[in-house]
Amino acid sequence: MNLEIKNQTFIVCGATSGFGQATATALMNDGARVIGIARKQEGLDKMSHQNKRKFIAVKGDITTPETINKTAALASEYKISGILINAGGPPAKLFEETRLSDWDDAYRNLLRWKVELTQKLMPHFKSQNYGRILYLESSSVKQPYENLVLSTSLRLAVVGMMKTVAQEIGGCNINLNLIAPGSHNTPAINRLIEKKSQTSGADFESTKTAFIDAIPAKKLGNPYYLGNLAAWLLSPMAEFVTGQVYTLDGGAVKSTL
Fold first, then answer.
1. Domain locations in the chain?
2. What's the CATH code, domain 9-248?
3. pTM for the full model?
4. What is the DSSP letter of 247?
5. Least confident interval from 89-98, 131-140, 232-241
6. What contacts 184, CB < 8 A, 6 or more positions away?
7. pLDDT digits (tens, 9 = 90+) for 166-196
């Protein structure tokens, strides 16, 4: 499919692994240029080598003010068309295992920086009367999962912000949407399975087997397929889509909403 993004530029946070890498790859495969942000130079170098002039590497922690300011400046310099806002989540814990400091950290790492980055990008998108902002969160915003109380609580706040802002800027050709993935074959899923293994007392492999069996699709999701949906939502093709939450979870969420 031609997404009509050839020669456009996008920012992808967490661009060297998991969903970020999958999205960056999908965008570049359709002719776009990607400014990829990640903390590790090794992954950035690999993406740069594989994609030559299509990938612009930026080393930094997107949750920090320094990298947020750098990202906002790049958005204006390169006249970006859209951004995937994506970063890792907090540690898996039961509610009774958490301390208030864990909640403070979750606020900073899951919500605060996304608010700041969105605020600083909005003038750029308004000035060009066009923009796509896509958040990458978790299917736990539709249905809570064990050991993810910190993630679920603060990601729900991101959904609330996204939907509200989408309403406030309606008519400006700036669309905000959110992908809420379930269990995919990424490094993050192994951390969740490890926590579940520790809690249950079962070994990792049997826990992983039971984990996958509980998914109606009976398999983990492919992050590269999610990357193609993300690329579509970041493209002009999604002009009539805003304020929406897309759940990709193999049928695990039982909610009717």
1. 9-248
2. 3.40.50.720
3. 0.93
4. E
5. 89-98
6. 18, 19, 220, 221, 222, 223, 226, 248
7. 999 999 999 999 999 988 888 778 777 887 7
